[in-house]
Fold this sequence. Notes:
Elements: H1 54-57, E1 71-75, H2 76-84, H3 96-101, E2 111-115, E3 125-128, E4 130-131, H4 133-142, E5 145-148
Parallel strand pairs: 1-2, 2-4, 3-5
Amino acid sequence: MTKLNTTVKVKSKKIRVGRGIGSGKGKTSGRGVKGQKSRSGVAIKSFEGGQMPLYRRLPKRGFNPLKKEKVAIINLGKIQNLIDNQKLDTSNKINIEILKKLNIVSKKYNKMKILASGEITKKIDLNAHFVSKKAEEKLKKVGGSVDLIK
């Protein structure tokens, strides 16, 4: 019985450029002949041959504030659904802290806005930072109220 050589190379040998003609990467070290790219210390990432680069041609737009206020948007239909499923109690005021405790709203939100999508049938009192006009009208029609937090 003869033993077979089963060693497998995990790492291929590094090509050493500029070490003689016999290496296959001698003389110009695979950089071609002459020109800017053949020289050392050349970085021409976004250079477009003297033409105005793309990142300078395009307009700069917008502004990203460092402290972005995260606003949770809740529709009246969703609130009504939660009341129907007995997840919300209508006897006391509903605000963002209560919704956070019940895991209805994510903890990352610090303000709340009420929108008018869906129907509301129960009389409820809300504490919110923002309310749409239609949502306010719908709440008043049912007999509810909204207190805006400044």
